[in-house]
TrEMBL record:
SUPFAM superfamilies: Multidrug resistance efflux transporter EmrE. It comes from the Bacteria. It comes from Phyllobacterium myrsinacearum. This is Drug/metabolite transporter (DMT)-like permease. Residues 11-142 form the EamA domain.
Length: 299
């Protein structure tokens, strides 16, 4: 078996583990039984401390001090990730898990639109088709929120998705290493949460779940998912992010008996089908281009 095939299998394994681990993020937050700002403070603080430890160990082991944020653009990206984290946590406590993860999958649409507007990267026809169906799916979920009382949480989830897509777009435009930007971005939600907790008090019934989430789950998940692009194409990596979209509602259903509503399931199925179909199309197109390049430039 060639080295490229071995690398591809390694990438599938590493990224698959990352996506699977990430799927328990929201259930663990719910198990913490904490108030929004207290949970955000504990989770962000734990993640930030662990990131600093990893950075220090990496720097000592390699003998090179890794740049945490590359200039002003790095602070902008960290700020966008921070805003996304704040709105994500608010959404966790103001809408159902199924609504949240299905709406977060809309990140792909926002990223494509922002890239088209600011990077002049016009989406292909297949992308427009996928975006159209995803809009229908999100529309069904948000509309259902009008009757279920989740409208505020659904809108907040959309805003979180927009900030995350903005961070990705700015990162791509800068062409700089932003591997630590998302972690440093926890400083903003940590600061905001600390202020809110000082005003309203701290309340987390089971802090161990939140500490475990911040120290282990998010650290390992994002390390694996960040490693994936070394061995896999972008569309293949994106496929594994869908594991959270599919599995998180199932874990919450099993643990908390929170069954997604029929409109939410319908909207989610439309979103996932559109995303999976588009990702498969992208992978096939990428492989076709690679084969053509090998034919034109044989070694």
């Amino acid at each position: 078996m060639s080295q490229s095939h071995l690398d591809h299998r390694k990438g599938l394994l590493i990224t698959g583990i990352g996506g699977l681990i990430l799927s328990v993020d929201i259930p663990l937050l719910r198990l913490g039984q904490g108030e929004t700002w207290s949970t955000l403070l504990l989770r962000s603080g734990t993640t930030f401390i662990c990131a600093l430890i990893i950075w220090a160990v990496w720097s000592i082991a390699t003998g090179r001090v890794k740049t945490i944020l590359p200039g002003r653009i790095g602070f902008a990206v960290a700020g966008l990730y921070g805003l996304g984290s704040i709105f994500f946590m608010i959404a966790v406590y103001n809408t159902s898990t199924a609504n949240l993860v299905f709406i977060l999958a809309f990140n792909t649409v926002f990223a494509a639109l922002l890239s088209w507007i600011f990077l002049k990267e016009r989406p292909k026809t297949a992308t427009f088709v996928a975006m159209f169906f995803m809009l229908i799916g999100v529309g069904i979920i948000v509309r259902e929120g009008l009757s279920s009382g989740h409208l505020f949480g659904n809108i907040i989830a959309l805003m979180s998705t927009f900030f995350l897509a903005s961070a990705i777009t700015v990162t791509r435009a800068s062409k700089k290493d932003m591997s630590f930007a998302a972690i440093i971005g926890t400083v903003l939600p940590m600061t905001v949460a600390a202020f809110m907790v000082s005003q309203h008090g701290y309340s987390v019934a089971a802090p161990g779940w939140i500490i475990f989430n911040g120290a282990v789950i998010t650290t390992i998940a994002f390390a694996c998912l960040a490693t994936g692009p070394r061995f896999l194409s972008g569309p293949e990596v994106a496929m594994f992010y869908l594991l959270e979209t599919v599995l998180a509602p199932i874990w919450v259903w099993l643990v908390f008996s929170e069954r997604p509503s029929d409109p939410t399931l319908l909207g989610g199925i439309i979103i996932i089908t559109a995303l999976v179909s588009h990702s498969i199309w992208q992978m096939r197109s990428s492989r076709r281009r690679s084969r053509m390049a090998e034919i034109r430039h044989p070694i």
